[in-house]
Structures are given as structure tokens and as C-alpha cells.
């Protein structure tokens, strides 16, 4: 699932090399931290957070299949 | 009151100009009452002249509020033809019509094979990464790519109120848009979800509309995305007894259903003349 975040973010930004995702697990929750180049922050967040929200709902769907929850943080 | 004189012209503007030049006063000094707005007619037939009544304003006499400079009924005003040219031959409007139509149905190109390929590859990768087992069929149309998803994990792919499906559609469109600048609409569907959802929204909207009409209270539909709001507005537009409007900020807005005339925001316009500065 980390790859999912990497894949989507990598295809949305101008500097795919700067995309970094870290994953951690806390109980039933999978936590993802996404880092992108400063100029690309807007691209992964989207207008009114629409892109971030879409990524979160995909992550939740993927996690839900494994009876887990997912959280995605976009780190500056 | 002074006597009124009747003037006719091709339209109101024309009639007023005639009146002004004949009486020899400026427009501001006339009281004008529109009797008929006139009509440009169709194919040069059925032309109707605009008719107005004018009289000189009583000037600065202490008389109480002289009616506004131009008194006329609103619907009439809307009929005033914008263009003053009246086509005299039948051919002219016909040609215009066909031109307009051609502009409307201007063929949008079918998305290129490269894009269709890209949609397939990307979607496959998505399902692989999400560990979903699903198949899909891509159907290109002019200006549009439809994707029909099926398979075991369909429910998961749709998500609560289509959230996941809409998210996927949105991200996919953005990712493709990054590579290709072609314009097209990408529409993902899974097992008739869109159709079912549309019917559900329509029946909910119509049910609330009946309630609004019967007891006059406003009702709202919980926040919807733009495409879903559109469905609601479209179905309610057919019912002239009620109105609908989106309220709220952001992507998701509620749809308010109300009776026209209710919820007037501004106080009614003053009928008297404008106060002098």
C-alpha cells in the first residue's frame, strides 16, 4: 500500500524523485507519511484538499479489505 | 396631467427616439409608458411595432413623485429584441439557425489510442497495488472515455456513496492529464452504480419537492458532489412550482428546495423615482 501512495503521488508531481513515503503501523491503523518537493505540495493536496481526499479514500478502501484502517499525512 | 401622445417604432428604443425628436425634448423630460414592446417577427413576418405613450414631465412643480422615467411591465422588457436588425428575407434566419446548430454539435474527437492505453495500464496498476480483483472494459466515445468495472471487489471499489469510485476517477483523470493534454471526460462506473445512484437521487429529490409544495417548508438534500447536484437540479427544473439552489462552500454542497417567492433575500425594490444625488 505504500507503493500505492508512491505511485499516485509520483504521477501527479513535477519532481517524482522527491516523493518519499514512510509507513508505520499502530494497532489496526496503517499510517502513511507522504513527503514531496515543496513546489509539488499543492499537487498532492489539490484544490480544497480534493486530491488528498481522493488518495485517502483509495487507501481506506485498500486497507478495509485487510480489515485495517489507513491514515495519510502529507508532511511539509 | 398632460395629454399623452402615441408613438410607434420598430422597437421601444426606436419609438422613444422618434418621440424625443418630434417633441424636441430630451429623453429625461418624457414620461414614457410602454404599450407594446413590438416584435422582430419570424422570417420578416408577424412584425409588430412597438407602441409607447409619452407626455412631457411636469417638471419641478411640487407635484408628488412623478413615476419613474420608464414605466413598463417587466415581461415586456424581456421581449425587447436585442438586435435591431430585422431580417427581411426568409433565407437569412434559416442560415443562422443551421450555423448555430453546427456550432453546437461540433464533433469532439474520440480520445487517441495512446490515452485509452494509458487508462488501461494505470487502472490495472491501481487494482494491483490495492490488491483488488477486478476487470474493466474501456469504451471510447467522442470527447469521452467510459470505463465499466466488474469483478469480485466491485463493492469495495465503489465505496460508501461512491466515494472510492469517484476518488479513483478523479485521480486517474489527473494522472492521465499530466501526460496528455487532450480534453476528454473520464467516467468510471461499476455494476450500474451511476444509474442506480441517479435514480435514487432523482426519487429523493422528487419526494422532497412534493413535501415542499404541500407544506411550503424548505427542505435540503445532504451534501453532494457537483455531478450529483446537477442530477438533482436537472430533475427539479421540470417542476415549475418549486426551485432548487446549491448552498454551502466547497466541493460538496447541499441542495435547497424551496417555493419561489419565499426566502426573499433583498427587500422588494422601491417603486418611486430615484432620489437625486
Structure, explained:
With 76 residues, chain A is of the alpha+beta class. Chain A has one domain (2-75): GMP Synthetase, Chain A, domain 3 (2-Layer Sandwich). In chain A, 42% of the residues lie in helices and 28% in strands. Chain A is built from three helices and three strands. Chain A has helices at 2-12, 41-45, 50-65, and strands spanning 20-26, 29-35, 69-75. In chain A, strands 1-2-3 form a three-stranded mixed sheet. The longest helix of chain A is centred in the C-terminal third of the chain and has 16 residues, at 50-65. In chain B, a hairpin with a 5-residue loop joins β9 and β10. Chain B starts with a strand and ends in a 19-residue tail after the last strand. In chain B, α7 (193-215) crosses α8 (226-237). Chain A binds chain B through residues 1, 3-4, 7-8, 11-12, 48, 50-51, 53-58, 60-62, 64-66, and chain B through 122, 125-126, 129-132, 153, 156-157, 159, 163-164, 166-168, 170-171, 174-175, 178, 250-251.
The N- and C-terminal alpha carbons of chain A lie at a distance of 21 Å
Total number of beta strands of chain B: 10
CATH architecture assignment of chain A: 2-Layer Sandwich
Order of helices and strands of chain A: HEEHHE
Main sheet specs of chain A: 3 strands, mixed
Q: Give the overall average pLDDT of chain A.
A: 95
| Percent of residues in helices of chain B | 25-40%
Mean pLDDT of chain B: 77
Instruction: Indicate the multimeric state.
Output: heterodimer
Helix content of chain A: 40-55%
Kindly estimate the percentage of residues of chain B that lie in beta strands according to DSSP.
Answer: 15-25%
**Biggest sheet of chain A: strands side by side, in what order?**
1-2-3
Radius of gyration of chain A: 12 Å
Number of helical elements of chain B: 8
Low-pLDDT windows of residues of chain B: 59-104
Principal-axes shape call of chain A: globular
**Terminal Cα separation of chain B, in Å?**
26 Å
- What Rg of chain B do the Cα atoms give? 29 Å
Low-confidence stretches of chain A: none
Dominant shape of chain B: elongated
Enter the CATH topology name of chain A.
GMP Synthetase, Chain A, domain 3
Amino acid at each position: 500500500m505504500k507503493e500505492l501512495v508512491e505511485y499516485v503521488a509520483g504521477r501527479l508531481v513535477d519532481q517524482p524523485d522527491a516523493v518519499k513515503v514512510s509507513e508505520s503501523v499502530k494497532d489496526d491503523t496503517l499510517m502513511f507519511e507522504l513527503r514531496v518537493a515543496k513546489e509539488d505540495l499543492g499537487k498532492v493536496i489539490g484544490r480544497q484538499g480534493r486530491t488528498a481526499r481522493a488518495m485517502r479514500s483509495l487507501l481506506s478502501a485498500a486497507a478495509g479489505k485487510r480489515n485495517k484502517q489507513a491514515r495519510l499525512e502529507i508532511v511539509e | 396631467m398632460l395629454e399623452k401622445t402615441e408613438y410607434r417604432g420598430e422597437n421601444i428604443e426606436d419609438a422613444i427616439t422618434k418621440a424625443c425628436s418630434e417633441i424636441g425634448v430630451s429623453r429625461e423630460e418624457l414620461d414614457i409608458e410602454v404599450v407594446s414592446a413590438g416584435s422582430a417577427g419570424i422570417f420578416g413576418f408577424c412584425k409588430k411595432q412597438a407602441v409607447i405613450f409619452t407626455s412631457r414631465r411636469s417638471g419641478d412643480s411640487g407635484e408628488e413623485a412623478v413615476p419613474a422615467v420608464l414605466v413598463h411591465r417587466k415581461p415586456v422588457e424581456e421581449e425587447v429584441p436585442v438586435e435591431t436588425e430585422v431580417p427581411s428575407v426568409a433565407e437569412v434566419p434559416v442560415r443562422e439557425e443551421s450555423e448555430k446548430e453546427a456550432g453546437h454539435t461540433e464533433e469532439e474527437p474520440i480520445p487517441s489510442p495512446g490515452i485509452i492505453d494509458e487508462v488501461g495500464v494505470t487502472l490495472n496498476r491501481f487494482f494491483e497495488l490495492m490488491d483488488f480483483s477486478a476487470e474493466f472494459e474501456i469504451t471510447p466515445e467522442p470527447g469521452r472515455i467510459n470505463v465499466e468495472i466488474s469483478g469480485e471487489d466491485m463493492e469495495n471499489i465503489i465505496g460508501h456513496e461512491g466515494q472510492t469510485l469517484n476518488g479513483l476517477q478523479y485521480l486517474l483523470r489527473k494522472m492521465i492529464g499530466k501526460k496528455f493534454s487532450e480534453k476528454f471526460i473520464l467516467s468510471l462506473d461499476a455494476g450500474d452504480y451511476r444509474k442506480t445512484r441517479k435514480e435514487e437521487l432523482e426519487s429523493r429529490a422528487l419526494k422532497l419537492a412534493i413535501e415542499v409544495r404541500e407544506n411550503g417548508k424548505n427542505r435540503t438534500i445532504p451534501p453532494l458532489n457537483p455531478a450529483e447536484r446537477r442530477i438533482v437540479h436537472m430533475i427539479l427544473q421540470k417542476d415549475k412550482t418549486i426551485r432548487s439552489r446549491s448552498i454551502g462552500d466547497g466541493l460538496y454542497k447541499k441542495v435547497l428546495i424551496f417555493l419561489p417567492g419565499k426566502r426573499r433575500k433583498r427587500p422588494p425594490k422601491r417603486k418611486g423615482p430615484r432620489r437625486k444625488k
